[in-house]
Structures are given as C-alpha cells and as structure tokens.
C-alpha cells in the first residue's frame, strides 16, 4: 500500500511542497489526479480502475505511466515506507 | 527599553556579514528602542551606507592588530558615544571580545557570547572529538600542518574530500594535487591548520539557534539553501519542518549549555542520517529568515544580554523563503571623505 508522507501539501495548481526537505515540484494534470487519489488512501489498482473508467486512455499506456510516476515519488522520498 | 547597540559584520556583499540582518531584527522589535552603532573595518562596507539601518558608524582596527589596540578603540568610542551592548558577528573577532568580556562589563557594555570552552571545543579541527563527546555524527577529519601530510591522505580518505580553512573557505578536492593547491590558497589566507574532511554526500541543511547559557534552546529554525553562490553562500533559502534537526540542536544546546547565537551546518544523507559538518559560534547572515518566520533571534539575544528572561519560541513558519539581491546604493564623496578622514560617520535616516 502506497502512502503519501503526511505534511506534504499540494495546491490546486499542482504545486507540491515537502516541508521536511524544502523541495517543491510541479505536477501535471494526470499527476494531480493520481496524487489526489493516493492522498485519499486509494490503492494502485483502485487508481488504475478509476482512471481507465473515466478517461480515454489505453490500459497498458496508463499502467506504464502510473508505474513511472510512483517510481518518481519513491525517488523523491515523497512516500512513507511501504508496507507489504 | 532604550538601548545603544553596537554591531559588527556590516559587509553586505555576496559574502554577507550578519550585521545588517541582525540590525533589521532589532529594529523590528516592539520592545527595544535601539540606537544602532556600526563598527566597520573597511570604509566601503555597504551596511554603513544603507538607509534606515545604522545611526552612526565608527571605523575600528582589525582584530589581528591585537586585543589591546582593538579594545582601546572600543573604549574610545564608548567614552564618546556610550554603548549598552555589543553584538560581534564575525568569527575572527569573537576571541578578542570573549577575552575582553569582563573589561567590557566593567565599562557597562554587555555582550552575550559563548564561553571559551564552548568556542574552542567546536573548532573544525576538533570536530571528531566533539561528535564523540556529544553523540553527534560527524565526518572523519584530519588536521594538515604541512605538505608531507598530503601524501598520506590516500591511506585514510577516499576522494573527493573537503579542504577547509580554520575560519572560512572550503573546497572539494578530487586528488592530492588539488589538495596541495587548496592547501596553499587557504593557508596563505587563514593560516594553519588546514582541515581535511570526509565528503559526505547529501543535502546541506542548517539551523540558526540561540542558547541561553543554561541549557535551554530559546530559538531554532532549520533551513535549506536553495541557491548557492560560487563562495558557497546561500543566495536563497527556505525554512523546513524537519523535527530531527530541531532535536539535534536542542540536544546539543542542552548538553553544552551553549550561550549565544549559533549556526549548525549539517549534511542530510539520502538514508536520512545527519552529519554535523560545522558549528559557527555566532548568528549567521541568513538570520533574518528566522525573524520573518516568527523567531526574532536578534531581539531575543539583546534581551538575554540585558538580563531579561526570554521564553523559548515554540513555533515558526515553515516554507518561508529568502532571496538575496544586489542593489546599487548611491552616495556622495563627502560621506566617504568623512569616514576616511575622521573614522566615523553619522547617517541621517
């Protein structure tokens, strides 16, 4: 289960600020959609399902996109230690 | 509270002294009605000419002239223009002020400085011992006193490593030739020893703090430099919520009973470890960020120096940023003449 670090704030414009490190990032629209759902506690499969239902995107394309995005979040230390 | 406060470190250049930020904090205090005296070493220190900052500036000799000559000038200024408190802001002058503390006290001039022991034991050259004594992770370091030591570095260190001056300057060296070159440059400027430090990979983070001398942390604000000049000075920075940095600071101040302002320089590694790389025994030049974030450290230091009890700050604004800029001040040759000939200048604000 992926959990966004608490304290991390994202504004309506997609500006993400990590107060612990002082780093900031800009999320694009798709990033904002994924991040919002992660922050709500949704699982990876929930997000996949919801996006594929609501947007015109091919399964394998979004699958890859989501994996890459999550990898980035891990790389930038924006998620809590993952539980099994 | 009406006070005349003398401040040094007025060189507000791209390697700024903390003088002007300290003055800004004091002038923003609602409890202190301060008349500011500037103490300057060079007659082109920008702070002297900045409007609304200093009421009167006096030229003083460099500390290297000797404590006696230095203090003679301070006394001379005090007799003419009585001072309640001096805030020295430069590393190189702290020793002189610490040595003259009781003399200053007899004259009715307050200071709020670390003790000799606190000042000496945190020297870069003693960092390893310091880390061990106070339970803080520090990079491995070695003192260089001559060329013969450089050849042996391969046995103890991996490149790159840092070559640091006693007071200022730090350079990264990727091989022994570069160490030699930095060693020459640093030792010519700051003397010996030159310090070799293990290069810790990570993000540099800093804390500005104030200890009351009894073990209490009165203020502590962590910051990360966002933009660094070629001299390694912050040109922009942001306050952090990092509680581990606050914990390390409070723990150190409690154990050392640190008295006065300080800056802790740390490296946060990718694995979340914190290494203390330096302790500056005075307020840093970026202190105005802390003032803006809600902890007026210069004001609190003034109150502590005047014997007023100060309650520790408990909060500060996270995500507060500073960005430095350069600005061409215009002045007239008469001002420069006044300072050059008479060694003092009154600034009409």
What is the mean predicted local confidence, pLDDT of chain B? 94
Number of beta-strand segments of chain B: 15
- Relative helix content of chain A: 40-55%
The tally of beta strands of chain A, per DSSP, is 3
Q: Give the quaternary arrangement of the chains.
A: heterodimer
Number of helices of chain B: 14
Summarize it.
By secondary structure, chain A is an alpha+beta fold.
Describe the structure.
The complex is a heterodimer of chains A (84) and B (349). Chain A has 3 helices and 3 strands; from the N terminus they run E-E-E-H-H-H. Chain A has 84 residues and is of the alpha+beta class. Chain A has a 3-stranded antiparallel sheet, with no helix packed on it. In chain A, helix 2 crosses helix 3 (59-75). Chain A is globular, with a radius of gyration of 13 Å. Chain B has 349 residues and is α+β, with helices and mostly antiparallel strands. Chain B folds into 3 domains: 2-112 and 328-346, Rossmann fold (3-Layer(aba) Sandwich), CATH 3.40.50.20; 140-198, Dna Ligase, domain 1 (2-Layer Sandwich); 201-323, D-amino Acid Aminotransferase, Chain A, domain 1 (2-Layer Sandwich). Chain B has 14 helices and 15 strands. The relative contact order of chain B is 0.16. The model of chain B has no long low-confidence stretch (mean pLDDT 94). The chains are: A alpha+beta (84), B alpha+beta (349). Chain A binds chain B through residues 7, 17, 19-22, and chain B through 203, 223-224, 226, 238-242, 268, 318-319.
């Amino acid at each position: 289960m992926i959990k966004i670090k608490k304290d991390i704030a994202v504004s309506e414009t997609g500006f993400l600020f990590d107060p612990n490190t002082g780093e900031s990032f800009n999320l694009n629209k798709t990033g904002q959609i994924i991040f919002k759902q992660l922050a709500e506690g949704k699982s990876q499969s929930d997000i996949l399902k919801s996006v594929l239902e609501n947007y015109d995107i091919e399964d394998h394309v979004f699958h890859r996109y989501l994996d890459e995005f999550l990898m980035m979040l891990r790389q930038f230390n924006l998620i809590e230690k993952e539980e099994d | 509270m009406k006070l005349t406060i003398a401040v040094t470190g007025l060189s507000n250049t791209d390697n700024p002294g903390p003088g002007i930020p300290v003055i800004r904090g004091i002038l923003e205090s609602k409890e202190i009605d301060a008349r500011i005296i500037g103490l300057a070493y060079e007659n082109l220190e920008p702070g002297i000419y900045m409007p609304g900052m200093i009421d009167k500036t006096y030229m003083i000799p460099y500390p290297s002239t000797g404590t006696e000559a230095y203090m003679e000038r301070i006394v001379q200024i005090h007799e003419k223009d009585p001072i309640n408190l001096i805030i020295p802001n430069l590393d190189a002058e702290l020793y002189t002020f610490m040595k003259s503390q009781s003399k200053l006290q007899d004259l009715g001039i307050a200071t709020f400085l670390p003790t000799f022991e606190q000042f000496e034991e945190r020297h870069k050259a003693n960092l390893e011992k310091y880390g061990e004594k106070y339970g803080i992770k520090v990079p491995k370091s070695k003192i260089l006193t001559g060329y013969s030591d450089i050849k042996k570095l391969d046995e103890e260190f991996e490149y790159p490593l840092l070559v640091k001056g006693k007071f200022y300057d730090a350079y990264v060296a990727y091989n022994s030739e570069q160490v030699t070159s930095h060693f020459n440059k640093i030792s010519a400027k700051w003397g010996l020893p030159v310090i070799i430090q293990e290069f810790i990979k990570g993000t540099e983070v800093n804390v500005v703090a104030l200890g009351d001398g009894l073990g209490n942390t009165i203020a502590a604000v962590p910051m990360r430099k966002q933009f660094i000049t070629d001299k390694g000075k912050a040109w922009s920075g942001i306050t952090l919520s990092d509680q581990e940095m606050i914990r390390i600071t409070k723990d150190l101040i409690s154990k050392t009973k640190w008295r006065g302002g300080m800056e802790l320089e740390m490296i946060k590694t990718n694995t979340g470890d914190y290494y203390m790389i330096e302790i500056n025994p005075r307020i840093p030049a970026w202190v105005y960020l802390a003032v803006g974030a809600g902890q007026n450290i210069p004001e609190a230091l003034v109150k502590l120096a005047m014997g007023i009890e100060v309650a520790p700050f408990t909060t500060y604004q996270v995500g507060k940023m500073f960005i430095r800029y350069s600005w061409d001040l215009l002045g007239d040759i008469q001002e420069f003449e006044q300072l050059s000939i008479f060694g003092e200048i009154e600034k009409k604000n």
